[in-house]
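Input record (one chain):
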Amino acid sequence: MAINTEGFEGSIICCAYVPAQNETAAPAALRKELSKVLPGYMLPGRWMSFGALPKNANGKIDRRKIREEFERHEFEANRQSRAS
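The corresponding structure, as predicted from the sequence alone:
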């Protein structure tokens, strides 16, 4: 999914994922594997690991909640960078 940012391009691709049980999935390793099959402009710029993806009342992945989580993290990162 893409979220709006204050950066040059205006939006950034984000990836929410759930690591396999008893596995650690570092964003750098995921990016490396994805770069084998995707062009660079399609690779996510932000990664967020979840214990389980949030579900809506219909049992589908709640993309709105995931988007809100990414936007909250982006807001916090921008706020901290301005404060320093």
